[in-house]
Specification:
A five-stranded antiparallel sheet has the order 1-2-8-3-6, covered by helices on one side. The chain is built from two helices and eight strands, in the order αββββββββα. It is 14% helix and 32% strand. The protein has one domain (7-152): Jelly Rolls (Sandwich). The model has no long low-confidence stretch (mean pLDDT 94). By secondary structure, the chain is an alpha+beta fold.
Length: 160
């Protein structure tokens, strides 16, 4: 039996992201958190803060396919320097694959943005060692300023 994901489910996901305290919502398509392949739809609102992070496990690459909207993928060096900025949109890059161990974050540039993320499982919560030490924790007072910096910072910039 195939799995189907109707447009109305994805629209609900976008609405839920706008109502969420974190500004994002996901719909897992894998059956369990220990599944060998993790597949999830992610909807983001424009004000969501995705703390820069990495997946340090040897098998944890990340494939990200933009379905609708617009986002910027930021790749960082160990010191927080922006190494690359990649626009994801219907007219720019649609999909990226991020290698294991690469510091990264996304900035949502348009309401109604959602994507499909695929990575090898099982799900392992991100540890403090894999959250960028030069970035503020979620819900901290410094998040808004850091998010605004990520929106406009050029390649070669470092956080203050």
């Amino acid at each position: 039996m195939i799995k189907r994901y109707h447009a109305s489910e994805l629209q609900d996901l976008i609405l839920n992201a706008g109502l969420s305290e974190r500004g994002r919502a996901n719909l897992n398509t894998h059956e369990t958190l220990d599944a060998d392949v993790q597949r999830l739809f992610i909807a983001t609102s424009r004000d969501t803060y995705i703390r820069p992070h990495r997946h340090s496990e040897a098998h944890k690459w990340e494939f990200f396919l933009l379905i609708e909207g617009r986002m910027d993928l930021l790749l960082f060096g160990d010191d927080g320097e922006i190494l690359e900025r990649c626009r994801l949109s219907p007219t720019d890059s649609r999909a990226v694959e991020i290698p294991t161990g690469q510091w990264h974050s996304y900035v949502c540039c348009q309401p109604g943005t959602f994507a499909l993320e695929v990575k090898q499982g099982a799900y392992i919560p991100t540890t403090d060692a894999d959250l960028a030490p030069w970035s503020p924790a979620e819900n901290s007072p410094a998040c808004e300023a850091f998010l605004q910096w990520m929106r406009t910072a050029a390649v070669g910039s470092k956080p203050a």
